[in-house]
Design goal:
679 residues; Heat Shock Protein 90; 29% helix; ten-stranded mixed β-sheet
Length: 679
Amino acid sequence: MKDNRHTIFADYDILVEVIKYLENNQLLIIVKDKGIGITLDDVKYIADIGSSKENNIRLRKIMENMPDWLRPSGIFGIGLQSVFQLTDCIKFYTRQPNQPERLIVLHSYGKSRGKINVHDIPENEDGMFYDNTIQGTNVEIAIDPYKMITPKASDGYERNFIYYDTQFDVGNEIDIAYAEICQVCKELIKSVKCDYFNIFYQEITRDEVGCDSKRDKRNLRRSFFIPFNDYRDKHMLSFTNSVDSILPFLAYKGEENYCFLDNTAHYWDETACRYYRLKIRPCEIRTKDMSKQVFLPETTQNLYHISYKFNEISNTETIYHPRNRMQNVHAGFLEWRILILDGDPMRYMNIDRDRLKEGAISEQELLDIRGPILQKWCEYFCSQDARNLGNNRFEKTPGILLSLILLFYQNVSVEQFQKFIAPYQSFLDNMNLVVGTEQIPAVCFWNPEKLFQVELVPDNIWLADINIPDVEVQMITPETLCHFPCRLVKIVSIYVSADGKKIYRFRFEPEYSPSTIQMSNTAKILDYIGAFDLYQDRKEHIDYATVQKKVFKPEQAFPHLVIPCYPHTFSQGGNFVSHLDACIRWYILSPFDMDAARILKRSLSQAQSMCQEFIKVVIKSNQFEKCVNYILKMRYQNVTNQKQVKQQILNEYEAFIAQYYNTIYENRYFLTEYFKNRK
């Protein structure tokens, strides 16, 4: 991006005009560009609906010589054809170097019938649509307002209008249509903040004698490639924001492709042709009864907003893992804006361009990108604060500071985090912030020694743990907890109380190493049996075969079996249902196959213990061998003592299989009753 493209893009503005043409009782929408113009060969492809741009040799050569970030994702297509819903003809006044200006008229007669007229325009031809001096194209769409606006037989109109009130405004059909179309055009242009080129908008009225009355020309969509400071138009400033404009493009100054403000980080990934803007979602601080209460950022349906070449993709749920899509709410301290300028639109979008393709971008991919950005962002604050000692930049915006603290706490080293927070420590202590109505000091959330506890509602469970360790914990409600990003919550233990509540104990701390959970007997039972499903057509019967290709919680007794991700052919079952279960990021693979499921079913139905037979069948199965190899691949690929590690995995798996069978068998009556209540 180290070039002078900002000066180039400034020379190629696009102008949209809406003209009330009283001389002809028409409304005109005019779009003027300074592009490459339209050739006679191009007309052939415009006439052939559905023809591929790959067949247009001229356009193909032009696009092949473009960099990825500039290459358009399409050419004239269905959007052009849809214009015929408003008018019967479209006119193109087009100009190329050393060529006469041409008028190309597309006529539509309905029922797949139409005609295209092309003729040259003399150099001395004069009129508001002709422009022989500048290369490019003017598109003219003429609309008959009397076809759009239908009066009733009595006084009034067939329908109400969005921007024109017939009881308040004074005018006729052309005034109504003009008001509606002007507002729609403005809203559509402003709906996207940036584009390749500046898009200006102007309203014009031409009276019956040909005199024009023009309103101010306004820039409603700015060029992404022109730095904010280059704008001098006062109207432009009202539609831009220095925070959104500061990155394009840092390479002019020869800097790294990062730019930081107190609440925003910008990053240009030159290799992937992507621009990232990470904006802080601040905590909210309210004062009540002399107490300053902190409320974490609200959960939202989506934290990631993606545009492909400035066209926003409205449905981006495919970023999330399928199990997280079901929850439909996400918590976090960052809101992402991602602009993709990659040259391959088919990688990201289907033909409707409204939904991000499955597998195009994953949340884990974005989290991997986030790490280095936050690292450099934290370094930015540390260097800034070192030069401005005693100057608390967040004194008026403590909500931003709190979100930054929790972000950096989980993403940078302990040493760097302490360096970042040191200048604000006394400020935070003096504020005496508590979290919501919990009365938990906010400073506890970045103290890894603090243990928290949440109790989830009863789940028709009548098994309980007899002895639950009594330790000092901070009680927190599920409503508050769900506002924390799952990755900040490290579960330590799971128990079940006498009243059937699931008790989760956890810390807020980064997870740098494999994480296991201390699980009580009842918690193990619920984890094991929760992996079963019922038959689809017989809801009263357990389908034991569904224990195959499931995952279990990372039990503390089996540290060598836990893995950070599982094959896409595996899935979580009913043993991962709560918000707290979504915080678990290490798993144990089910090593059971169909033969093991059959033995388990026969053993339980006959009330006959078959533990040794069950263990033997599992250990000799292909599924077991594949699970062992997968663990070695995911966690121990680079260890020198692979043979020793593999033996530890085998030993732990054998112990796990025995424990699994004995737990299920000893609680077989509970298993049946549990599913009766879960149906």
